[in-house]
Amino acid sequence: MTVAHDTTLRLTAIGDGDGMMITPTGAQADFTELYQAGLDGLLADTGHLLIRGFAPSVEEFNELVRRYSSRTTLDPARAFHGNSAQKVDSGHDPIGLHLENGATPFAPDLLWFHCVKAAKSGSETTVCDGFRVWEALSERAKQIFTDKPVKYTRSNVPQAMWQRLAAHLTGGGATPAEMTVDHLYAVSNKGADVAFTEAADGSLTYEYSVYAAHPTRTSSRIAWANSILGPSFNYEAPEIRFADGSVIPDDVIAEYTEVSEKVTEEIQWEDGDIVLIDNTRVMHGRRAITDPERTILNAQSYARS
Q: Residues near 182 by Cβ (< 8 Å), separated by ≥ 6?
């Protein structure tokens, strides 16, 4: 595994999985080297990358995202910092493992984090490689998740939020007020099995079915990567069942909860760090925030072809 181009970048293994850290080899760190470093290719091997030692500005972080992305998406409940980054604002409680927007038909390919100010204690971001979870699950659990998809049903999505998302993904200067449910269908991820229902007040209910274990964006290898354990900080919590209406057995819930925690790793943030995650393979979460002064930005994007 090598960094593309003739660069002064160093790759170092981190944790017990495939994740890698990229650091500059010299005292004079040139952030622009990352623009041609082949991060997308490295990500296919590693699942997640920690980029440390460059101290980029928010503008440089936004530019890095743009260089590796065909387009960006957003969380309509968050404020923008530049043209791609949004501030992570999800309270102080721990957050379970999930794919970003994985309970919706708008999950991005790539998830980016930028640590503007690291916490003095706690508040670690967690990462969990879906390849490792799948390998450790019992044959019974594997068969259950192979046989049928999971369905996320969420109600009362405010009209202002879904219209803002639809306008961003539609592009071309479209305004939120112009957006209809038809636009949501048009900008859903290709092949998404989703049904939207608009209420009289403009709020939305959707039912989204997707396999919890699946190939990734860059591999036919199966990853148990989903949002079954994930949060709902800014939205009503979804009902999660199999698509046929049956419930996930309690013993299987206990199994995947235990297995995923065993292979979960923590990112100990430093000022200026960037983390890039394959959002089709690696789930992420967070330990409880014990330093509310920490500042983390994130960006969600679709990879270039």
A: none
Q: Quick one: angle between helices 250-262 and 139-147, nearest 10?
A: 110
Q: How far apart are CA 151 and CA 17, in angstroms?
A: 29
Tell me the C-alpha to C-alpha distance, in Å, between residue 237 and each of 26, 129, 156.
47, 24, 10
**37 within a domain of the structure (yes/no):** yes
Distance CA 280, CA 266 (A): 19
pLDDT digits (tens, 9 = 90+) for 5-64: 556 899 999 999 999 999 999 877 899 999 999 999 999 999 999 999 999 999 999 999
| pTM passes above 0.90 | yes
204: Cβ–Cβ under 8 A, 6 or more apart, which residues?
Answer: 156, 157, 159, 162, 181, 184, 196, 197, 198
Residue 178 per-residue DSSP state:
G
Residue 127 counted as domain residue: no
